[in-house]
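Format notes (please read before filing issues)

Several people have asked whether sequences and structure tokens are stored in separate files. They are not. Every record keeps both together, in the order shown below: the sequence lines, then the token lines. Line labels are part of the format and must not be stripped during preprocessing.
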Amino acid sequence: MLVLGIESSCDETAAAVVEDGRKILSNVIASQHEIHSPYGGIVPELASRRHVENIPHVINEALRLAGVSLARIDLFAVTRGPGLIGALLIGLSTAKAMAWAQGRPLVPVNHLHGHIAAAGLSHDINYPHLCLLASGGHTSLYKVESPVAAKEISSTRDDAAGEAFDKVARLLGLGFPGGPAVEAAALNGDEENVKLTEPKVKGAPLAFSFSGLKTAVRRLLMNEPKPAPEDIAAAFQKTVAQALVSRTMLAAKEFSLKDIVVAGGVARNAYLRNKVTEAADSAGCNVFFPEPVLCTDNAAMIAAAGYFLYKDNPDDPRFTDFLKLDGVANLPLNTK
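Then the structure lines:
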């Protein structure tokens, strides 16, 4: 089964062709970093306009690289939410039009489900397993029972990890996007020169919180003499990784899960990957990461999630009665 996936939840316009939910035939991503960089964050209206310009070219390129025509696509999958509503509607409207014109089913996919499914495109992973999803908008732990079933164990009480990276990068004047900028600066810093406390939530040992850490960085910058930005970046990166790793390993122990997936944009961070791998090895656990290109927003993960949703229930009327389907900016992850 050939699935054409479309992703437009934020500032990446993406399309991919995936075979049987596992084999990537193409995965095309058009980024918008140069548009939003001067503002230090995503400008929703600008993102939507660029999606309109990019989406036909991205889809055509995905089909070309896969070596297939649109008529050969068996199933369409598209991000329904969560995300920027204007951006979501562009991908959703395009997918609805294409599926209707081709007389094919269309599967609406939760963006978070896509991230959870991403590692399965590179690895064979046992079920159930634990998934740490850390991105610009979300930081949560999930117990993943099957390709279509995930239960949230815990989440952030305020800022997501990726959001905190962006805000700290802005405070330090490192540029946008913040995650890669902080990681690059940290390579030239000493994490021991600045002391930051790992944030914890009283009475909720698995919960995340990063707002206070961002405030601590702001206070450091009020000191004279100010610490070197590279040292702050290194200490911040270390403290975020400690918070993510400690709760992940605690959840793995509490739920007796030996396989761990780390997904989302923050999972590209090499420092975090090393720390999770070290902790997992010490605990006798296996850890899996999506390929770096599959950590950030992409359409291959949406195609994979859509495939498994369809195979789980091909007679679901939503997949054929999709013309009234709407985007949902705060779509919850309601898997089985």
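For reference, the curators noted about this record: The mean pLDDT is 95. The longest strand covers residues 23-30.
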